[in-house]
Amino acid sequence: MPLNAVRVASRAQPAKNVILVFHGLGDSGAGWTFLADFLQRSPAFANTRFVFPNAPNMKIVANGGALMPAWFNLYDWNNIQAKIDVEGIKDSLKVVNSFIQEQIDDGIAPENIILGGFSQGAALTLASTATSPHKIGGFFALSGFCSLRKEELDPIAKNLNTETPVFHGHGSHDPIIPVQFGVEAKQFFEKHFHLSDYDFKTYYGMEHSTSPEEMQDLVQFLQKALKL
Questions:
Q1: Which of the following is catalytic: 10, 92, 119, 132?
Q2: Which residues of the chain have pLDDT under 70?
Q3: Which residue out of 208, 209, 211, 217 is catalytically annotated?
Q4: 155: left (phi over 0), alpha (psi -120 to 50) or beta
Q5: Chain centroid, CA 135 distance in Å
Q6: Burial class (CB within 10 angstroms; exposed 0-12, middle 13-18, buried 19+) of 168
Q7: Does 119 participate in catalysis according to the annotation?
Q8: Which CATH architecture has domain 5-225?
Q9: What are phi and psi of 171, to 5 degrees?
Q10: Among 90, 103, 112, 212, which residue has the least CB neighbours within 10 Å?
Q11: Measured between alpha carbons, how far is 192 from 56 in angstroms, rounded to an integer?
């Protein structure tokens, strides 16, 4: 069965690298295609293709059982880490791996693959730094948090990306995922999974969103990670 995603072809052929972007709760892949539009203005990304996976719909407990696209369930907005949908996260990590494998099967070298996401998608990205079965080119997490505890990650960890660069951007005034959750995620992955190239940046005044400054930092990260 084809993987469900919005796909943006590279402007020049052949495609030499790919950027995978996993969206947040209630969103869709289409909600992040602006990133492809933004990056493809630069000749540096002419041979870059983009894949924006779509999450399945599920009833979100924290939203009164409302049905919406989600990579895993959330139970309490006051503390999103109090109760964790471990199996839902693990299932979505398998989806992440399937998208990476799809690109490898299509001829893209693992080191030319970037995995990123926003909010829930960023949480999957951070977990994938430990669990991915491939050493890829880089990871970026926008407004992300640590979704699994060490005891849940350890059995599925591959630890192939300890030296892979990670960019993590977070708003200082994020009311949904407090910036402290981002700080703690960096500390967690550096301590327990030995990530050695984890760049965490706080954007003053930014809420649960992105900003021009964050986008510029992301561009620089992507160009360096992909050697563009």
A1: 119
A2: 1-2
A3: 208
A4: alpha
A5: 15
A6: buried
A7: yes
A8: 3-Layer(aba) Sandwich (3.40)
A9: -80, 140
A10: 212
A11: 31
φ, ψ of residue 87 to 5 degrees: the values are: -70, -35
208 has catalytic annotation: yes
| Amino acid 79: pLDDT | 80
Catalytic residue among 23, 128, 170, 174: 174
- How much is the pLDDT for 113? 99
In angstroms, the CA 198 to CA 134 distance is 18
What DSSP assignment string belongs to 185-218?
HHHHHHHHS--S-EEEEEETT--SS--HHHHHHH
Check: CB of residue 168 under 8 Å from CB of residue 218. Answer: no
106-158 pLDDT, tens digit per residue, is 999 999 999 999 999 999 999 999 999 999 999 999 999 999 999 999 999 99
29 CB burial (10 A radius; 0-12, 13-18, 19+): buried
What are the Cα distances from residue 129, in Å, to 89, 102, 134, 166, 175?
14, 18, 10, 8, 25
- E-strand ranges in 23-127 read 48-53, 57-60, 66-69, 113-118
Residue 120 has φ and ψ, to the nearest 5°, of -60, -40
Omega before residue 14 within 30° of 0, cis: yes
